[in-house]
Amino acid sequence: MTSLFDKLGGDAALDIAVDKFYVRVLADKRINHFFHGVDMPRLRQHQKAFLAFAFGGSSGYDSRGLRFAHGRLADLGLNDSHFDAVIENLSMTLSELGIRNELIDEVKLVAESVRLDVLNR
Questions:
Q1: Which residues lie closer than 8 Å to 80 by C-beta, 6 or more apart?
Q2: CATH number of the domain at 4-118, out of 1.10.10.10, 1.10.490.10, 1.10.600.10, 3.30.360.10?
Q3: Is the per-residue pLDDT at 50 higher than 60?
Q4: This prediction's pTM
Q5: CA–CA dist 45, 105 (Å, integer)
């Protein structure tokens, strides 16, 4: 069975998608304030590793945990509308890259599966 990671195009495609995604996120006034002062190159690498793991591309992801990683953001008011904006930006990025809607829907399901942890609920 082919993983979602492979269906999306593997490491090379994920690198492009994450970089384009963060360009979009940093331009989004609904959520860009959460990224002020963040080491973006480091965050991009961390995000690529997490998504490779989440999409079935690797089993070597070493995480502090989503709740811990997003705890500061929850303290700053991170909520469902912000999470929805992230999913919207990710979906638009993947669409722009020519990813089929069925695969984008799979990506959204993966994202939804971590909503409560990211929002520290």
A1: 115, 119
A2: 1.10.490.10
A3: yes
A4: 0.90
A5: 24
